[in-house]
Amino acid sequence: MQFNSVNKKTKFLLAAAVVLPFSLCSLPPLYAAMKIIPVADISLLGGKYFLDSQAAAFQGRVDAFISPAITLAENHDLLPVYSGNYSGTQDIQELAGGGVLTRKRQTHTFSLKYIYTSDFNKYKPRLSYSKAGINETKDEKWGDGLFDYATLSFGFEAEQERPRGTYTESYDYYKVGYPNYSTLLSRSQSVFNDTTTFNELSTNAGENPLDNISHRLALGYAWFPEPLNMKANYDFTYRTYAEQAIAARPATGQSPFKSDKRSDIMQNFSLKASRALKPLYLSAVARLGWLSSNQGSYDSVRSKYMKDYYSYMDFSISPAMGLVLENGAQFNFGLDWRRVYYLGRLKQGNTGNYGSSEITQTFWLTSLSARYPVAKRFFARAACNYQISSSNMRYEESYRYNYRASTYLLGLEWEF
């Protein structure tokens, strides 16, 4: 894969994020107490995926987490992490604003976090680089996926432990590039019979419409009213698309795009409660989200323009239960319910005709998993997921809104 080069400002900030932790750790007294604690967790699973009762071929899944945690000295820690995932089973992913059926996926992430502890305060600069490949067809080669992407991020987190609870604040910067996703207009003038038509369509269209930059602020507060553990979180993300022009309601002889570019604002508030009744662990999470986008959509076939096409509000509730036995065996059950209310995307009938109300979509996800020790550091693992998506949207030429999907996996996990 090829990815967009990082601009000078990003390089400077990245270098600073790397140099700062190491400069703090370069004093000779720190090395005297250096300790390395390797941590690893690798699982190899195989299973089948069913979509609307149609079974895919038996495929494998690999998950890996490797981290040689380094204690440089008292109150100085460095955490390099590699995490990777390969999934050969089919799955419906939310890509470019809708549900897309993918055949295979793999993701590789390298991250580095430095932790400095001062009394009851912690300071954590961090950076990471992630590369993902997504194949939509069986014969698609790795590196050619339309939705392949790379993410560069860095940020800072502060944590303060106080008698009434623990406070956290963080800022993160993300730069995401899609090397294979570019507009056909930017490279297909030859398909138009006349230059005038091409110029009208290509004006302000942009070449790499999915590439984006995000700034994320997050606040958290954890407190412990016996017998519960409580945690509240709020995050705010501002995302810009430098090459994605806003769709317009076109007039004769005018471009279907404005010169303005897309920008999104995302906000989430969540509240989690958990309780330990050993060997039983109970938890529940409630989340409220809102995405506001200035991007619209124009359906040229039906001459229909929709403002706020990507804007939505959603609400989810996620209870979970875990059982941990003394021999290391674990059993987990989770239920996730999510309701999405689109604010400008109109529902359509089976033939594509538009209705007067916006789309709503409801997700139900049930998860069961278990692991049982079979040898030293080795566990047998099994997992089952069943998801139902239902919507008042009936036209699914581009995205899936209504489906039933299930995954069954069985394999081995190694923990170090």
What is the topology?
Blueprint (H helix, E strand, L loop, with lengths): L7 H17 L3 H4 L3 E17 L2 E2 L3 E15 L2 E12 L3 E5 L2 E5 L1 E15 L2 E15 L13 E14 L2 E13 L17 H8 L9 E12 L5 E19 L9 E21 L2 E14 L3 E3 L4 E3 L5 E13 L5 E19 L5 E22 L2 E14 L11 E13 L1
Antiparallel strand pairs: 1-2, 1-3, 1-21, 3-4, 4-7, 5-6, 7-8, 8-9, 9-10, 10-11, 11-12, 12-13, 13-14, 14-17, 15-16, 17-18, 18-19, 19-20, 20-21
Q: How would you describe the overall organization of this protein?
A:
It is a single chain. This protein has 416 residues and is mainly beta. The chain has a single domain (8-415), classed as Porin, CATH 2.40.160. The chain is built from 3 helices and 21 strands. It has a 16-stranded antiparallel barrel. Strand 9 and strand 10 (165-177) form a beta hairpin. The longest helix is centred in the first third of the chain and has 17 residues, at 8-24.
